[in-house]
Protein: histidine kinase
Organism: Natrinema zhouii
Amino acid sequence: MRSVPTLDRVTDAFFALDTGFRFTYLNERAETLLKRSREELIGRVMWDEFPQTVETQFPDGFHHAMDEQVPVSFEIYHTPLETWFEARAYPSETGLSVYMRDVSERKAQETTLAQHAAVVEAIRDAVVTLDRDREIVTANGATKSVLGVDRSQLIGEHIETLTELAGIDAEHAVEIGRAITDVDIGNSGRRQLELPYTGPDGIDRMGEFRFVPVEDDTATVAVVVRDVTDRYEYDRVVTSLHEVTRWLLESDDPEEICAIAVHSGSDLLDLPISGVWLLEEEQGYLEPVAGTAGAHDEFGGLPRFNPGEGLVWDVFEAGGVELFDDLETLDDLYNPETPLGSEIIAPIGTHGVLMTGSLEPHRFDESDVDLISTLVENTRAALDRADREQILRDRTAELERQTERLEAVADVLSNDLQRQLEAVTDALENDGDDQWTFPLAEDTVKTTLDRAERLVDDVREFARNATAVGTRSRLHLESTIDDAVGTSRLEKDALVVDAAATLRADPDRLVHLLETAFDSAAARADGDVTIQIGLLGFEDGGSRGFFVLDDAAEIPPNAHDRVLDPTADDDTAADGLGLALVRAIAEAHDWECSVTNGQNGGTRIEIRDITTLERELE
């Protein structure tokens, strides 16, 4: 059996070179590595046989070892074999002995560890690893930004050093110790805790501590700390906003609801410059109804926004929440000199808008937008509820008023009709004259029945005041007066109209109002009567309307209120409900009715608050 040279049993590749870098020996591992036999290489120069090595570290390393007579070691990647080798050369007077070891596995591990280290170093979370003695083996740079502790203060120290420097109290430090033990001994694959700590700025923060096992020569557990203060605060604010919703829904006053919304936004969301504007439906502008102290201090009061004015109106009209990061970059601001740098404007449904601003640009982010959206949605729900409650109260009050009116009308109808029918009965019991007369009046039976029919019509008209008027149309006052005269007891030449005008009203009911006023004057007249109709509010700037002034027997001042009351038993009511019906129709239009006396006697009826009344040019 042939003996195997000792160097052939070496697992490393080995070859020997003389002083001229000629091969003098190769073991079997070297033959395999170089893919050449000993017979081919012995006596030949390395650089001639393997020219590709000239561009590697081999020449410099080997020349250095030969010239300085010192051992050299270096690592080299062999491309054909896709293998990393560690080359070690030992010089002698006769040449070099070269050993080459496959270190690919070690290099792969080092590369993986380097990649992991780079990842750990790049993440924003603080990461420390611990050995079994709970001493810190490694710490990344984020420990400084997250916990306010430099890694140089931690390496080699017990984990208690970290909890002390991060301001974690003793009770929570014990929880951390238990979590580390559970993961280290395998009771748990991972643990997670949320604990308060003191941040780099000395402000209380909330941290998410995660504990995971690691496979390392020294470390057994990794502790990953993430600052979740913003998320924790967001969750806290959302929970608080639900409580604010309860306050909002307990109120039925729109201004109180808006005040709650503004101040909860200031306190919970740290929005000191905020305000709420509600739409004034009749006039069509956004009226400020609530604002924070910061808003009033900064602006000295909140402005009113008319249609088309400023970002507030634009966003209200568009209907979606808008974030404006830098107001200096925007044109057509309502106030070009505004001190605000950024703002969020959020419509509250169709009710109005909430605006919050900051003196700094880019002050707000999407989480602020989300929270304000939640606040305004809750505010909208509260205002919707307040509107429904107000409608319900108004309807209840109107039903109560309607009930009172109908009860009063029933009394009038019962008493007046009874008197009319008694008069007719008396007349029928007379001796059969062709011309029946009443004992106390000259009216005929037909006239008396007409009076009863008119009373029934008035009662029906009066009861209609419980509901809204019909469709309002643009009417000419003069033509409406003509229609009313045609159905009244007056002659057309008894009317004097001072000026032409137009207004919007329910045509039938306005005619009935004027007809009733005219009949009241005719009933009080002893002979002919003249009625003057003129406009109010155009000369003195007061509320607009018109007056009806007659020269019939005046209604005395102490009876002015009584004649407007359907329950009054007063002769001035004439036929039917009289002036009480005039007031009922006026109030159905949201107008105001009053009775006074003229400067020269007679009775003056005034109908005011007709916002649509306009003088016609002649």
Remarks:
- Residues 366-428 form the longest helix (63 residues).
